[in-house]
Amino acid sequence: MKQHHTSSEAVSSSSTISSSTVPSSSEQSQPPIATPSPSPSMGDDPSLAASRDGHGQESVTVDRRTDFSAVCKWTVHNFPKIKARALWSKYFEVGGFDCRLLIYPKGDSQALPGYISVYLQIMDPRGSSSSKWDCFASYRLAIVNHADDSKSIHRDSWHRFSSKKKSHGWCDFTPSTTLFDSKSGYLFNNDSVLITADILILNESVNFTRDNNELQSASSMASMVVAGPVSDVLSGKFTWKVHNFSLFKEMIKTQKIMSPVFPAGECNLRISVYQSSVNGVEYLSMCLESKDTEKAVVSDRSCWCLFRMSVLNQKPGLNHMHRDSYGRFAADNKSGDNTSLGWNDYMKMSDFIGSDSGFLVDDTAVFSTSFHVIKEFSSFSKNGGLIGVRGGSGGTRKSDGHLGKFTWRIENFTRLKDLLKKRKITGLCIKSRRFQIGNRDCRLIVYPRGQSQPPCHLSVFLEVTDSRNTSSDWSCFVSHRLSVVNQRMEDKSVTKESQNRYSKAAKDWGWREFVTLTSLFDQDSGFLVQDTVVFSAEVLILKETSTMLDLTDQDSESSNSGSQIDKIGKRSSFTWRVENFMSFKEIMETRKIFSKFFQAGGCELRIGVYESFDTICIYLESDQSVGSDPDKNFWVRYRMAVVNQKNPAKTVWKESSICTKTWNNSVLQFMKVSDMLEADAGFLVRDTVVFVCEILDCCPWFEFSDLE
């Protein structure tokens, strides 16, 4: 892997640059609510139809508080003797929708044994079962205790009901033994049970405008919702009017109200509004969420979105409230991308509900979001063979190997740049889809306007994370070659190469000044063709394992090394197995590979290996990074080995010492590379080379100047 162009070493994008404008995970948190799992749509199950008769055994009363809120009281007589699998209440109307309660005395198919299942079902009386409709409801279901109301069993939730999801509730509402006990207080008047439902229906209206100014009605928008893996809606504006906000004023303190979904790229998004307390101040919180509407479709759908969320002021002459953000949304949270982005502290509640503020007029609030999704196409090849292509369809398969190439095309690039300039957004980064190499998740990060002011350069980084391990000690060594592809003359592509060790603390490496914006947007340069820019990443990950052992005199093989050590307390031995050595041989001719740091006697050390004039050279060096203590100086005596895996007696050992601050590394020349690679030599077995470093002695080192 030779460099196409000489370049400076890659730097971590997070080393000196402050975090981007994307809200942190703590800012994206939702209210702490336990949500019930939705039930199947019970009303369409023909096997249960026989249970619907027997209305003489029940009575329903409805207490209407407003057109959009009501309390239903459903009395079921002779409850312990009911043999039917399910019972429905009569329909009652709330907010123009038909509602009814559904109870399974012995539990439905999802319930734990011995539990009662209770659901709320909402239907649209205005259309057939095939028509598109939805409504948002907040509700509380309860089984009343007549002896002691404080013992009544109640559960709260919220849900957006639709033609596809008409039922919602709890399969494990309560154990049936609790109800059937005559002394418990739930049975009254000849074994009757009282079930109540307190229901609030959101009175709302929406409109959706695509960027070609084509206004979509709610019904036509529903037909555009992404059921497959792609949508052609790349930018637009979605407006959501809530006409009875005060009805939900208490509810949003613990739950959230959510808009209908709208299409954006490969995802379906929705606005979510709730209330949060931040540093003792009450805030209106608002975020944009991705909602996977179909469980059967490709699960790795995602889109990168720049968005503005607004609360519109309804009084003439007063200002709207806007906040901008961006990020990659995923259809679900399996990929590690965001399913929600926004602000806990969007605006103070006092400013939002103030009578003169203009945001809440005639109990109506208007929320909107304008969005821009990048049009992208990506492909991934493993060891030169195409693995998966993304952009319109299909899914990216995982790579088992440690070498791969990722190509990422971003279209409408000039428009994106102009939008960032118009919105005065600086430091914005676009992150590609993830691709997997060597069980690590990788992706490209591009800063279209760079990381410096004024904008002069495009910045490009590679991010590597460990999806399997959330602890802080994961580490991997990566050789990466990043390119901005010249689409007219590929040999004139700007390519930079580096080798770095990635970890949780340093997960992205690259170049802040990758290519000048002047040359990138020059129409004759070949980098911008049909307003499309192409990026690529060739990634090679070191396959390695390392172990640390504490040794005693008896464990050590120092007697074979030709030098006896008189005073040895505890020794330590670090073993580093490189299991794809030949993949890095060409890199080691001009660069080095190095292990992760290990601790010995109070200092952080690592092994480095490179090739010089056909000789394998190994050294020990201490941690010289910014975080290490510059005043700590240690003298370390050690011996290094290249292990003979076929005949351990032929293992080659060499001894040396370093002073961690003043003379940091001491290079040991071991053997000819050609000798080491011989098939029968025993040093390279199944592409694996094993290096061992034994720390013989480690103590603080004092210069005379330090003592003075």
From TrEMBL:
Family annotation (CDD domains): MATH
**Annotated region described as Disordered, given as residue ranges:** 1-61
Q: Which domain of life is it from?
A: Eukaryota
Bias class Low complexity marks the residues at: 8-32
Basic and acidic residues bias: start-end ranges: 52-61
InterPro entries from the UniProt entry:
MATH/TRAF_dom, TRAF-like
Task: Give start-end of the signal peptide.
Answer: none
Q: Name one Pfam family in it.
A: MATH_2
Tell me which SMART domains the record gives: MATH (SM00061)
MATH domain residues:
69-199, 235-371, 403-539, 571-695
SUPFAM superfamilies in the record:
TRAF domain-like (SSF49599)
Q: What's the protein here called?
A: MATH domain and coiled-coil domain-containing protein
Organism, by scientific name, is Vitis vinifera (Grape)
Q: What is the lineage of its organism?
A: Eukaryota, Viridiplantae, Streptophyta, Embryophyta, Tracheophyta
